[in-house]
Structure formats: C-alpha cells, structure tokens
Amino acid sequence: MPEEKPEGRTLGDSEHLEALGYQDSFHRSMSLWGNFALGFTYLSPLVGVYSLFALALSAGGPPSIFWLVIVGSGQLLVSLVFGEVVSQYPIHGGIYPWTRRLWGRRYAWMAAWIYIWAMIVSITAIAEFGSGFFASLFGFVLTKEITLLLSLVLLLVALGLNFTGTKTLARVAKIGLAAELVGVIGVGLYLLIFQRHQGFEVFFNSMGVEGKGSYFGAFLGAALAGLFLFYGFEACGDVAEEVENPARQIPKAMIMTILVGGVSALFAFGGYVLAAPDLASIVSGKDPDPIPHILASSLGSVGEKIFLVVALTAFLSCVLSLQAAASRLLFSFGRDGMVPGHRWLARVSPKSKVPINALIVACGIPVLICLLIYVGPDGLLNQVTAFAVIGIYVAFQAVVLASLRQRLKGWRPAGPFNLGRVGFAVNVAALLYGIAAMLLLAWPGRSGVILNDWIVLIGLGVVVGTGLLYLFLARPDRHSDAPQGDAVQVAEMLRGLSK
C-alpha cells in the first residue's frame, strides 16, 4: 500500500521545484480539495454515464454496470503509478514532463502530441454534448445552428473563467463537484429508493442482448461504458505548480478522484437502470436517449428542470477543467521550447498567473472543430471524437511503460508518496490492464462500413502519423535542453537533499 516516509526533512515546494530545474511562476492557491475537484469534474461521472448509458445497455444489457468496477480497479492501479511519478516530479504539464524525465524528449513529445489532441477533441465533444442540456433548459429546439451557438457559449464562458486565475478555477471546480455529487449520487439514491421499477437481480440478466451467440462477446462490446469514464484524474498533476504541497496532495487527489468518481458512477448507472419504466426498450435500442424519459417520469417537470441546471453546471465545470489541463500541457511544451511559438505559449499573465496564450489555443482549436462539425455531414462528431479515448489510454500507458523501464534500471521513486515494495507489481499490473483496455478500444466493429468499423485506429493513425512526420522533419527535441531520462539520478539527489 502507499506509504509516506517520515524520516528526514521535507523539501519546500519552491526548493523541490528548483531542484528539478524550474522556478516558481504561479500562485500556489489550490488546496487538496480544489485539486480533487478539478480531477473529479474532468472525469465527470454525470457526463460519462449520460453519454454512454444507452450504448452500454444495448450492447451488454444491465450487467454492463460491472465494467465500472473492472475499469475503475484498473485505472486505480494507473493512478498509483502516476502518484509516485508526480510525487517525485510535481511539474506543470503532467504526462509530457513525466515521460520526458522517465524516458526522453522524443518519446515525451509523441506521448504529449497524442494526449493534447485527445484532450482538445474531448473539450469539443463535451461542449457539443452540453449544448443539449443548455437547449432543454431554455426550451430551444436543438438545430445544428443552436448546437453550434450553445457549444461556443460554453467554450467561451469557460475561457473567461480560466482567464481570471487559479482561485476561480478551483472555486468553479468545487461548485462543479457539488453539482456532480447532487446530480449523480443524490439523484441516483433517490431513484434507487423511491422510483425503483426493477429488482436488483436485473444486473445479472442479459435480457437477450447476446442473441444466439455467447454473452461474453456482448459483454466485451459494452466495455466502453467504463473505459470512456475513468480518466481525468491525471489533470490533478497538470496544475502541479499551482497546488500547495503537490508532492503529497496530488497523489491523494488522484486516488480520491477514482474512488469517489467510481462510486458516483455506480449510483447513477444503477439508479437509471432500476428506475427505467421500460427497460426492454432501452436494451433493444428502441429508446436511444432514455435518461430524459427516466428523469421526467421520476422527477416531474420541475425536478427535471432542476436536474438540467445541475447537469449544465457540471458540463461547464468539465469544459473549464479540460481547458485548464490542456493549457498547462501546452505551457509545459512551450516552456521547454518543444513547439513552434514556444515563447508565446509559455507566457504567463503577470496579473492572474495563468498561461493565457495556451488557454486561447485550448479554446480556439475546439471552436474551429465545432465549426467543422457544423458544416460537415451528420455524425461527424462521433467520427472526430472516436479516437479520443484510445489516444488518452495510449498517453497513460506511455507513462506506465516508462515508469516500468526506469524501475528495471534501478529507480526507487523518491517522492513522499511511495508504494514501497509493491510498486513494481502495481506497475506491471497497470501495464497489463492498459494493454487489455487498448485492445478492447481498438477492436474493429462489425457493421461492414470500413470507416465506422476502423475509425478508432484511423483517427489514432492520423494523429500518430502527423506527429511522427513533424518529429523527424522539424526535430523539436533538438530545440530543447530540458532534462530527460534522469529519474534514477533525481531520486538520489532528492534523497540527499532530504537528509
């Protein structure tokens, strides 16, 4: 289990950062709870469950709820590995500086390239999905024009809030956390206790989704229900230089994000299943958007409006958190001179102490993608976002693999959060889980339409291909003298400073 080493003196935040080669440039105004709220609202069980509830039930029936437990357990292992890394390297940007210090600049550049595009597409998708709640709340007919307008409003409001500084980010994240807990656990408990139309045994009833084949195949087909949900905890590390005592607090926030998010998702998913008055129509696919009907029949029109306000708050907070995380990664890229316009991207506002230009990029590209979705054919949103989940998992496993490589070289993590003797076993288990998850995500569909069946790998291939092309033609790794592959040496140095 994780352990904190009591011996020796504790390095101060600025001293720890200086030992890693950087100076404090931000306000450390984010507490443990603010950091947890940031990760939780990025993970957003309300958004995840709402987005995939119908798909999960039509693919795997009510037993698909068990994917939340399976994936949550696997991602908990990944968060423990991340916790050890960020405890030694509490640096802005998360996955990019971690992979650079654990492996090298080119490896880190590719991991971060994949991750940043996955994040940017995720920002776009969340804004687009949130526009539906926005329209329902105010009674708008959800045309393509209204979807575009409301998506842009969510993106720009989040950008404005992010411009004001870390305190606003933490405050809105906490509001979003409260909205998530009310909308997920509160509503879930209400549905479980007062609006139950199904018995608990339904979670062991496939309801015939397997047809004449094996249920195991149908169950695997519902894996996305969990795989789409359990990421976002890494955002806690993206803002490391704005957190008080990050080497201790961020690993705790990551673990809390997984545990609280998993419990919340179970309450929501289970509540919707048990409160569904016509579960068979959802499982058969006849009701492709069942949650509004469940809420309307269970909460009434007033209760439904209240829920829409709560849900919209959660969506806004999710976009805000995603923008913040993406901007810190872009800032970290720029600070190390790894991208064109790096000085511009690395600019920090002297007043609000946030990377304003990186924030503009983290909002501007999603705006352009929203415009592309508007002028493009129907269904383009699904095609554009299909690779996002596997892109994030690839980036995650880049950290896990690099951590294992360093352990084999003798690395003993030197941060205050430490897994001790079980660290190696946890690292191996996290890698095996990640490989299995990526195989499930990349497995082609069976519709017979090549673009639809292979869209995940096609999207990932485009991002990886363009990234490799730029990497080997422009050689951004040569433009930076940022330290790389120094995990063993830094661990020894930090232990020496702590004596």
From TrEMBL:
Annotated membrane topology: Multi-pass membrane protein
GO cellular component: membrane
Stored Pfam families: AA_permease_2 (PF13520)
InterPro entries named among the record's database cross-references: AA/rel_permease1
Transmembrane segments: 36-59, 65-86, 107-127, 133-163, 175-194, 214-233, 253-275, 306-333, 354-374, 380-401, 422-442, 454-473
Tagged with keyword Transmembrane: yes
Parts forming coiled coils: none
Highest taxon of the lineage: Bacteria
Gene3D superfamilies: Amino acid/polyamine transporter I
Protein name (record): Amino acid permease
Annotated source species: Lacisediminihabitans profunda
